[in-house]
Amino acid sequence: MIFRRNRARRPLPRWADIAVVPLVNVLLAFLVAGLIVLIIGENPLRAVRVMIVGALGNSEGIGYTLYYTTNYIFTGLAVAVAFHAGLFNIGGEGQSYIGGLGVGLLLLAGDRALPLAALVPLAILAAALFGAAWALIPAYLQAYRGSHIVITTIMFNFLASALMVYLMVNVLIAPHQMSPWSREFAPNAWLPRADEVLAGLHIRAAQSPLNLSFVLAMIACVGVWAYLWHTPWGYELRTVGQSEKAAIYAGVKLRRVIIVAMCLSGALAGCVGVNEIMGVHHRLLLGFNLGYGFTGIAVALMGRNHPIGVALASLLFGILSQGGAELAFEIPAITPEMIIVIQGLIILFSGALANLNRSFFERLLAIGPGA
Amino acid sequence: MQDAYLIVLLTLSATIRVSTPLILCAMAGLFSERSGIVDVGLEGKMLGAAFGAAAVSAVTHSAVIALAAGILVAIMLALIHGFASITQHGNQVVSGVAINILTSGLTIVLGIAWFHQGGETPPLPQEGRFMPIALPGAARIAHVPVLGPIYAHLIGGHNIIVYVALAAVPLTHWIVSATRFGLRLRAAGENPQAVDTAGISVAWLRYRAVMLCGALTGIAGAYLSIAQNAGFTRDMSAGQGFIALAALIFGKWRAWPALGACLLFGFLDAVAIRLQGIDIPGIGEIPVQFIQALPYALTVILLAGFIGKAVAPRASGIPYRKE
User: Which of A353, A370, B117, B304 sits a CA distance of 20 to 30 A from A33?
Assistant: First the structure.
């Protein structure tokens, strides 16, 4: 069940491999999504226009779009890092849940004692540590006991969900309250919103959930890029993903790489907690992670597991998420769940059926000149 | 005493009802995975079938046509998975995940577009559902102490799909272990080269396995929406496809042990509902979440090799390319 790259019959030229094939895959997914909109009896082109205007038409829309983008970058990078080591981490959902738990516990303990400048690095650390810890057990079981990472991470998603429900309902719930929410953090533990920061720079922007976590997501992109392509550890990690045998032959410690890759992956997914708990909700609650882990799979597949690709794919999904919410107002027949359909189609076409149009292009280029 | 006996009986009866979709999905997964096709998409196929069955039942008011529709939807989804994994040599886990996500969105989108009830189908009439069957003479024998309630509540009183699920287990066991098709199926999952060398098409074998898998998940889905419940509600499969996958692994990819695991997991679920808010002397109240998490935790522990060893079919997850 280890993820392997699909070997091409003859390597495609770089431009086709990086740009054309992924683009056609995504277009196919959108084509099918458009057909579904037609079946519902609405105009797909009008839907696209409503979505783009809703997501990018004003500063509030852009704020929401980038807020969603932040989460997708974290979970997309998480899946991508694991993919590079040949591992399929389906556990982003659980790891981001537990990462949020880490942030929440830290802020509940320290929000009244510490200033924001101290809380921010600590919260990031807590999110990363908790997320990594939730990935560590499946990683250990894969490395030392030979359990399939896919199955164990699926199981750990459910375990995380059960654990969170138990903790929120029985332990962390604020007194005198019906809904399973913790108490609100003191305002000095709130991550500043983007519109607040921009107001300080005399730029006016409408209020939105976008906050400084977006900067963290950008740093994560650069960090992952530097780690994977410009450090010996990244080189080892990618070698394991390309060929385990070659890696072992070259003296790479396979088990250590599996553990490190999964912990990095879990830490990245955990950072969703920084955005959601410290940046948006300012309290611990249930379900703040919903769907982001799974979308990360689509993001990573679409972005070809490269940080730049992941960032662009995240932006696209951010536009879809915010635009989809707007769509529900404008065209009630199309519900926000349409985004989930598009996600599924992108995973299908960019992931499972990736060979479909690749082999088409290979044949096409084989007929052309030069062959 | 009489009451306690009845509670035990009703819990066991609930166990069977809760286990039914798990059993069908576990047998479905068994066919697919023993042929070498990993299937994490049981959940999605079941959900798609549940919607298909309920939608058709809402229109036709016929349980049989609805069941057929559910099976058809699941087989179509299975064929997408088969095309991606067998013909296109795609990643089987990615394909399964795609089907899960696709159906979780599509069922709601189509449900709202067609029925305008927030993603639910209208409540279904009795003739559009599979209702519990009273066994002959159950009403008269029910009063007989000890045996009466067993006959009326445990053996009888279920809908037809429950019996189909229970019959699917020996049938699956027989097909996989005693027929020529089953032998070849297992060979395709362990050593596809050998099957190919014998002049038998690995691809066709795996396609048949995947379609059987689709048909069984289709029955499971129809059970959810037109037998156990009276209509489709959003995300109604609620992770049961994954529990079935866990049960299949727990049963080490064999029919009878998988049945045992399904019944165990179903029993835990039935007990969790009963134990809600009840103090057990000496232990106190057991959190429901703890019991709900047990199937997943047990499966992880089993996979880690701490209680026996679960070894997947050797060629599962690896696309087969003819030389």
Answer: B117
In single-letter form, the type of residue at position A308 comes to I
- Number of A to B CB contacts under 8 A, please give it: 165
For residue A204, pLDDT over 80 is answered with yes
pLDDT at A227: 97
**In this predicted model, what pLDDT tens digit does every residue of A223-235 receive, in sequence order?**
999 999 999 999 9
A364 found inside a domain = no
Helical segments of A146-274, H only? 149-166, 194-200, 213-230, 232-242, 244-249, 254-270, 272-273
pLDDT surpassing 50 at residue B282: yes
Structure ipTM:
0.90
Residues 142-171 of A with CB under 8 A from B: 145-148, 150-152, 154-156, 158-159, 162-163, 165-166, 169-170
Facing residue for A353 by CB, picked from B84, B246, B312: B84
Q: How confident is the model at residue A369 (pLDDT cuts 50, 70, 90)?
A: low
In a domain, B314, yes or no: no
Question: Does any domain span residue A2?
Answer: no
Which CATH number do you get for residue A205?
1.10.3470
Task: Give me the domain span that covers residue A141.
Answer: 14-353
3-state secondary structure of B305: coil
| A342 chain-B contacts, CB cut-off 8 A | 105
pTM for the model stands at 0.90
Any residues with CB less than 8 A from the CB of B194 and at least 6 apart, and which?
Answer: B187
Residues in chain B: 323
Chain B nearest C-alpha distance from A114 (Å): 34
Would you state the pLDDT for residue A324? 87
